[in-house]
Specification:
68% helix
Length: 174
């Protein structure tokens, strides 16, 4: 959740407002001035969209969890793990992990955001490889996917030793 400050500004006057930010995690800080009514309207629409996204993802996750349990195919299991990683990432990045619970569990801490991105990529690539059966159907595509998986694993190992901001930059570039 972005910080909000209620300011009492005189209409038509020039006012300087200073804001100092210190943070160890990544974050977005768009600065906008809103009238109270416009702000409430905008936030309510944003929260409906974010809630629909997260709710849809959780519904898809629940359905595919049942499919994975009944079918027991490797690609379905990888898809469920991909969806879990994506849901944790979205809940952390959009700060819904804090809003859903009284306190922030360690899994929703932004210092682990880069690991959540890595896990989402890892399970997504394994799912694609199993679902498309690239081992037997397309050796060239299989090589590309294996190279991407190796890159993700290398990034994971590097992230264990790099400072947070460097690891995030590396992941964004990767």
């Amino acid at each position: 959740m972005l910080p909000k400050f209620r300011l009492q500004l005189e209409p038509g006057s020039v006012t300087s407002v200073y804001l100092r930010i210190i943070n160890t995690n990544t974050f977005r800080l768009p600065v906008s001035l809103w009238s109270p009514d416009s702000y409430i309207e905008k936030v309510s629409v944003d929260e409906v969209v974010r809630g629909a996204l997260l709710g849809s993802l959780l519904a898809i996750l629940a359905y595919n969890l049942f499919v994975a349990v009944s079918v027991r195919e490797r690609s379905n299991i990888y898809y469920v793990l991909y969806l879990v990683s994506a849901a944790v990432f979205i809940a952390t990045e959009q700060v819904h992990g804090i809003q859903l619970l009284d306190s922030r569990p360690a899994i929703f801490n932004k210092e682990y955001l880069h690991f959540q991105i890595i896990m989402t990529w890892f399970w997504g690539l394994l799912m694609a490889r199993a679902l498309l059966e690239t081992r037997t159907r397309s050796m060239d595509l299989d090589r590309v996917i294996k190279m991407c998986i190796s890159s993700v694993l290398l990034t994971f190992v590097l992230s264990l030793f790099l400072p947070y901001h460097v690891a995030m930059e590396w992941i964004v570039i990767g």
